[in-house]
Amino acid sequence: MAELVYDKTGRLLFTKEMKEEYTILCPMMLPVHFKLFVSVLRHSGYKIELLENDGPSIVQEGLKYVHNDACYPAILVIGQFMDALHSGKYDINRTALIITQTGGGCRASNYIHMLRKALHRAGMDQVPVISLNLSGLESNPGFQIDLDMIRKLLAGVVYGDTLMCLNNQIKPYEIQKGQSEALLNTWTDRLNDQLNHGHGIGMSAQKKNLRLILHDFAQIPIKKVPKVHVGIVGEIYVKYAAFANNHLEDFLAEQDCEVNVPGLMNFLIFMVGHSLDDIHLYGGNPAKLILVKALFQYVTAMQHTITNAFKPYPQFLAPTEFAHVKELVKGVIGYGAKMGEGWLLTAEMLELAECGFENIICAQPFGCLPNHIVGKGMVHKLKQVDPNSNIVPIDYDPSATKVNQENRIKLMLAVARENLKKKYPDAK
Amino acid sequence: MKIGLDVGSTTIKCVVLDDNNKIVYKSYERHFSQIKEKITELLTKIHKDVIKGNEAKLTISGSAGMGISERCDLPFVQEVYATRIATGTLLPNTDCIIELGGEDAKILFLTGGTEVRMNGTCAGGTGAFIDQMATLLDVSLEELDKLSESYEKIYTIASRCGVFAKTDVQPLLNQGARKSDIAASIFAAVANQTIAGLAQGRPITGNVLYLGGPLTFLKGLRHAFDTALHTKGLCPENSLYFVALGAAFSSEIETDLDTALERIKKYGVSGDFRSIDPLFKDQAEYDTFLARHSSCKAPRGDFMTYKGPVYLGIDSGSTTIKAVVMGSDGQVLDSIYRGNSGNPVPIFREYLLSLYEKRPDLQFTAAAVTGYGEELLKNAFNMDYGIVETMAHFTAAKRFMPNVDFVIDIGGQDMKCFKIRNGAIDNIFLNEACSSGCGSFLQTFANTLGYGIEEFAKLGLFAKHPVDLGSRCTVFMNSQVKQAQKDGATTEDISAGLSVSVVKNALYKVIRVNSADELGRHIVVQGGTFLNDAVLRAFEKEMGVEVIRPDISGLMGAYGAAVYAMQKSLRREGNSSLISKEELEHFKHEVKVTNCGLCSNHCRLTVNIFDNGRRFIGGNRCDRPTTRRSGNGAELDLYAYKLQKLCSYKPIVAGKRGKIGLPMGLNMYELLPFWHTFFTMLGFEVITSPLSTRELYLEGQATIPSDTVCFPAKLMHGHVLRLLDEGVDTIFYPCMSYNFDEHKSDNHYNCPVVAYYPEVIAANTQRLEGKNFIHDYVGLHRPHDFPRKILKILKAHGFTDLNAKEVRVAADAAYRAYHEYMEDIHRKGNEIIDEARKEHKQIIVLAGRPYHLDPEVNHGINKLITSLGAAVVTEDVIAARQAKEPVHVLNQWTYHARLYSAAEYVATQSDMNLVQLVSFGCGLDAITTDEVRSILEKKDRIYTQIKIDEITNLGAVKIRLRSLFAALEQ
User: Fold this and answer.
1) What are the tens digits of pLDDT across the range B225-247?
2) Which of A201, A280, B428, B637 has its CA 20 to 30 A from that of A141?
3) Do B763 and A415 touch (CB under 8 A)?
4) Maximum pairwise Cα distance, chain A
5) How many CB atoms neighbour CB B656 within 10 A?
């Protein structure tokens, strides 16, 4: 049985012994990506489990243990952990939790502390919490993020983004319903298997996999008819996690829309890149600049592999590259706006509009601070840039009702359908 | 024929059109949530009488119609969209539509780029809100409308959400403001809210159309909109039916009504909503419960025959007035519990007269009053004592349970709970403005559904599947109920669900408990709302403890006041100073409204004048109008000093580089010395925007894109516009991710709103077009790089003749000026602390952010504290006395780090207490408040938090502060 060891501030550490004995629980956000990440961590020797518990008890647990004015993602992530810990499925003396920490100026960087407070309140102080971050916050002897692991996780992002992007484009038009989803699952399993064994990571392996993925998806018979195109942007968790946005993508599918949710890659590049912008704006350590630049170039190169893989298939819309997204937002909002999703959120709205997704849902937790600025705050300006953009900000929180959200979305869709009809008078 | 059915949150509207699109039938009625039944009834009737069995094209619209159309597979059109179709057909010249419904507000811009806006989840409650307000004033909607015609003055009522407005209206009523003025103010608030919340910077001009129930029925409301928009809007024929008409116009699919009716009949049996356990299994369980609670009784005496000293206690609450006549053994001799109809004075007078009638020999030994109306009644009737509500309730609770360690009181409007430790009030929780809909909320809801409150509450006792409504603000609750109804919840389920939600609100939102143990084992519950068995049961179930509900649960405040009067009078001779029977008979009460002219706040005062020259002034923020004491500047108030200091930064006229404007808000409140010096040195004439006022806020209100951002940020819009008004073409308001590093934290960020709000201003202020708005990213945290970076920025903005050297010199001077300013503040703060200690005064550390200095933001809370006899200092001064300590949060914001340090220090000083000001909507304070509280409570100190927004009433704040001082006295 691993001993409980604390650092000098009193934080419970995740020790090397724990790595052997403990099961690490990981919260859900993006099913495909996160499954791949978990496989990567498993290959690095961690016993890790991706939480798939869902349902109203998550919110209830969250509200019980988190300050009710905290943002919705905090309530959900912590609620999911507490729900799992209370489920009896895990030995709480041999369980650890892992959570990402961005270290940015948004309060999201404090989730980990809210989580520890919640554990304390629930009398589970013995459960260690691991911070997953690239900013050098909180180190643990039993958990190390090294370049090799970063490389593997990035491969997961490459695959996840590609699969999500293709599935979104094919699903609405497939002739035989369910084919795309099935292929998505087949590939997720196949990639999990590869990553579990440490394969599929090198650049050439990635290229090969991507080629096969594109090839497979291109085989699915589809029938293209004009459909309403809807893009989703927003706070990262609410945008991606289905139980946070009341299964928004499913709802839009029911409404016969094609959905475009920009992937995770640009967010990662944005996170790396804003250190460069900081140095540019305020001055800074040139040594740091070189290191960050190298990392930045590395992730950008990873993105190129995706774009290149898409090239032989002009029928598919490839994810937009970072440099272009960044260029789009120039003059609309400054590059110094880096808290939360920062200028990237605004940029993604422009990106979506540019590729024909002028109907946009900006999904945000109620009272999300960065969203006051980069989401709702920019709608007026975006309308000036593109008068056809049809943007609706939707707030999510424990008490916001689905009926009100859907009513607002339906209003946006009514306008979208009218525009579609103007463009394609024959569309039904 | 075409049928359009508009199923809204409270009403159903139906229109039938013939083949020439002429209306052959229309109806409008409330559905009292019996949606399925009403639709069936309506369609059956139309089927039989109007279309006479023929085929028809049916389309459904409206928020409550969405579910039914989905499940029954009937054509649906979104309601705003339907409105647009109807307008396009009937009144194609319309430019803009304003439509208010039961719970929705919408604005549609039709020309110059079509846009549709609906209220966000927070700004709900328009028609429903007016209903609530009418209930509060105890008038019908027609009377409310009529009243508004004869208004003289408009009061400021917070226009963000219904609950806020309510907390504004209540004190006005208690201060004796005229109902007609309040009625008109309510309408003005609705108009402001709609325009500000929905127009978001887009001007409303041209032909404006008013649609929907409230705008159709209420002339006063239309007038308010006309006034706010400076236009004359049109309320067209069939203004109630535009959604239904639009639905009918867009009907394309033939529907067989028989099949449709069949499907609707099957609808709603799914029971697919989140539910919780029933309150009571059966009658037997209820009987046991009743028997247990009926055993807790206050002693009684016979008023007619009682001999001995008589004490009077009054609790003048927000919606009710309670009085207890008590004998020397604490026996209740007589009591009343009555609605105050907005004015407690005549009701109490009548009661007192009735007592004298019964016992002409009656002579009170002492009388005390508590509650919102304390000051008013004390002055009107010359009562002996006033006591703060929390103390009154504690005093009463002790009579029933001497070892009580927790008291929770849920009244009509407020919720008060406090812990008791070592016989003293230790920790007070009052509901914050956002969740205050407690008892009166239940009542209004009952009325909306067509029930009286008692009947409604009873319905819930044996509900099989109480709806799980969560624990948030009432506005959310409305839509939650709507959703539950959609999913087939019965009125019984809703009633029980609401009772449970009131309890959950108290526990998880106000007190924020995790388990019963935290509250202690000896709990006394009181307040009118606990008379409701469903609420009491829900409380016990939720907490898992059996509690005590005295049989005078609704009268506890008054009883406590009476006990207090008794205890106080034991130390003195003679009788109560209460006015005599003769005086009562000639009692006069007159109300005048005026503006105070004693300082720049210009508080709107309600002056109550009684016979014999007794008067009471309400609405004031400080005690100057009542005491006529002038502010001599010698007050121990660092807020006042800081503000005065900042106001002393005047422009140096005729700067060779012209004018540059600085908007005075957010972080500018601390950086003014820096920027003022910097730009003055560079030869600019530095113009600051004036101190915030209500008018300044309203001027910028229409350009605010996010209605849930904090109030200090919203004020920035007005400040920038004011600078433009003054002809300043260059405005400097930089984005700043980082603040100064004070080495108290792991990083030194600004919060996202402070950091990037200039971007919002730039993106949403049309008037800035063509102006030089400098909002680049600036890093003061790197003094070495700053001159080089700022030079580049200023050059890019047209100041090309600047050179590196002068900028460096100016920057050096600016850094010096900033540090000198901070030092001066610290010196003054230390002086105040020393002086307060010499005078043995309590020191209140009013902790917040630099911009809480703005009097429009803090509403004069600093003055309120000094008027209660304490000194006020700020968190930055205190933080400087404390070395960095590890905290249990990621400590990475400069301003917030000061809070933690200040709390650490205060915890070690017996004569200091920390009061934290929190702006509503401040996301970061969800983190800081928890941490500051835990730092203080670790050392057994009291934590007091005050949430502030655009509300201007200080009633609740006063209770909190008085309770704090009362607790300190013990």
Assistant:
1) 999 888 899 999 999 999 999 99
2) A201
3) no
4) 70
5) 8
**Is A297 a member of any domain?**
no
Calculate how close chain A gets to B705, using CA atoms only, in Å.
Answer: 5
pLDDT at A41 (0 to 100): 94
Q: B784: which 2 tokens? A: 């070495």
Residue entry with tokens 């829309």: A257
Q: How many residues does chain B have?
A: 970
Name the residue range of residue B721's domain. 639-817
* Interchain CB distance below 8 Å, B121 and A137: no
Q: Is residue B644 part of a domain?
A: yes
With CB atoms and an 8 Å threshold, state whether B706 touches A413: no
Give residue A379's domain range: 226-262+320-423
Q: Around Cβ A189, how many Cβ atoms within 10 Å?
A: 11
Is the Cβ–Cβ distance between B466 and B274 less than 8 Å?
no
Burial of B597 (0-12, 13-18, 19+ CB in 10 A): exposed
Q: Chain A within 8 Å of B750 (Cβ-Cβ)?
A: yes
- Quote the CA–CA distance of B430 and A11 in Å, as a whole number: 34
DSSP string, B230-266: TS--B--TTTT-HHHHHHHHT--SEE-HHHHHHHHHH
Alpha-carbon distance of A43 to A46, in angstroms, equals 7
Closest alpha carbon within chain B to A114: B889
A56, A116, A332: residue with CB nearest B274: A56
* Shortest distance, CA A306 to any CA of chain B (angstroms): 33
Question: B113 and A109: CB-CB below 8 Å?
Answer: no
For chain B, give percent helix, strand, coil, nearest 5: 45, 15, 35
The rounded distance, in Å, linking the Cα atoms of A272 and A286 is 16
Give the rounded distance of the alpha carbon of A84 from its chain centre: 21
- Choosing from B799, B817, B835, the residue where a domain stops is B817
Per-residue tokens: A7: 């650092």
- DSSP classification of residue B328: T
Q: Using the beta-carbon criterion (under 8 Å), do B760 and A56 form an inter-chain contact?
A: no
B positions 30-89 inside 8 Å of A (CB): 63, 66-67, 77-81
Task: Report the distance separating Cα B485 and Cα B466, nearest Å.
Answer: 12
- What is the number of other CB atoms lying within 10 angstroms of the CB of residue B270? 10
Shortest CA gap A293–chain B (Å): 21
Report whether B565 contacts B526 (CB < 8 A). no
Beta bridge partners of B919: B948
Question: Is A398 part of any domain?
Answer: yes
ipTM higher than threshold 0.90: yes
**Other beta carbons within 10 Å of B581:** 13
* Residue B28, burial from CB neighbour count under 10 angstroms (0-12, 13-18, 19+): middle
User: A79 to chain B: which residues are within 8 Å by CB?
Assistant: none
Residues of B in contact with A414 (CB under 8 A): 77-78, 80-81
Beta carbons of A110 and B889 less than 8 Å apart: yes
Rounded distance between C-alpha atoms, residue B941 and residue B914, angstroms: 9
Handedness of CA A377, A380, A386, A391 (dihedral sign): positive
Number of domains in chain A: 2
Closest by CA to B570, choosing from B333, B360, B324, B384, is B384
Q: Does residue A346 lie within any of the structural domains?
A: yes
Say how many domains are in chain B.
6
Which parts of chain B have pLDDT scores under 70?
33, 113, 120-125, 158-167, 174-175, 201, 267-272, 342, 412-413, 431-440, 470-479, 486, 509-517, 599-602, 619-634, 951-953, 955-956, 970
pLDDT in tens, B259-280: 888 888 776 545 567 778 888 9
- Alpha helices for B765-850 (secondary structure H): 786-796, 804-838
Residue-by-residue DSSP string for B476-511? HHHHHHHHHHHTT--HHHHHHHHHHHHHHIIIIIII
Name which of A64, A82, A401, A418 to mutate to probe chain B: the one with the most chain B Cβ atoms within 10 A of its Cβ.
A401
